């Protein structure tokens, strides 16, 4: 005997109450979902218009990301501030991956600026950090063409050292004595 057949045998008042209860629960769920969607639209509208609310703890991550992006492109944002804002958002969500991508881009901008100064060697660690971040992004999402392209650009600026350029390993210290100390070996003349 299924649930629908049990409900069919209920008196009409009981059935009406059950239907009203189910409808009330559905209306509550729809209202909560609608409020969440309206809040998300409000966040999107604020980001789109550029009128971000005052900075406060516990703000949505999307607003924090928009504030970091504005600091990166705006004239008043310091590079350290931009990097710290993006680092606070780095996790395994799509927004976190975008924050890591933008962090690597900020590192590359810093490195390119340092390469044009009197000490271009200071750009090497920044390029290496950016390349490692791009590689992490590609391990998580191999189809991320932005990270792939930027990694290639970073490789052109600072190629990875090839393994073939590694110095040959040292021979063992007893290698020269091995043939002369073997028993039964006589290196006679031809």
Task: Describe this structure as you would to a colleague.
With 190 residues, this protein is mainly α. It is built from eight helices and no strands. Helix 3 packs parallel to helix 5 and helix 4 packs antiparallel against helix 5. The longest helix has 38 residues, at 12-49. It starts with a helix and ends in a 9-residue tail after the last helix. The mean pLDDT is 83.
Characterize this entry briefly.
With 190 residues, this protein is mainly α.
Topology:
Blueprint (H helix, E strand, L loop, with lengths): L2 H6 L3 H38 L11 H13 L5 H9 L6 H22 L7 H18 L4 H13 L20 H4 L9
Helix pairs in contact: 3-4, 3-5, 4-5, 5-6, 6-7
Strand content: under 5%
Radius of gyration: 32 Å
Order of helices and strands: HHHHHHHH
List low-confidence stretches. none
Helix content: 55-70%
Largest beta-sheet characterization = none
So how many helices? 8
**What is the number of beta strands?**
0
Q: Whole-Å distance between the termini?
A: 103 Å
Helix/sheet category: mainly alpha
Give average pLDDT, whole number.
83
* Morphology: elongated
């Amino acid at each position: 005997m299924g649930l629908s057949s049990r409900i069919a045998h209920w008196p009409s008042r009981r059935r009406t109450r059950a239907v009203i209860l189910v409808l009330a629960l559905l209306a509550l769920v729809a209202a909560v979902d609608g409020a969440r969607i309206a809040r998300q639209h409000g966040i999107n509208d604020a980001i789109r218009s550029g009128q971000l609310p005052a900075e406060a703890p516990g703000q949505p991550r999307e607003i924090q990301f928009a504030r970091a992006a504005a600091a990166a492109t705006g004239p008043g944002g310091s590079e350290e501030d931009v990097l710290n804002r993006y680092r606070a958002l780095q996790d395994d969500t799509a927004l976190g991956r975008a924050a890591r991508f933008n962090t690597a881009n900020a590192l590359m901008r810093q490195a390119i600026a340092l390469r044009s100064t009197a000490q271009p060697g200071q750009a090497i660690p920044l390029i290496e950090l950016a390349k490692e971040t791009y590689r992490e992004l590609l391990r998580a999402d191999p189809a991320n063409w932005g990270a792939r392209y930027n990694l290639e650009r970073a490789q052109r600026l600072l190629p990875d050292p090839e393994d073939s350029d590694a110095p040959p390993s040292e021979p063992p210290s007893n290698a020269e004595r091995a043939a002369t100390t073997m028993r039964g070996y006589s290196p006679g003349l031809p």
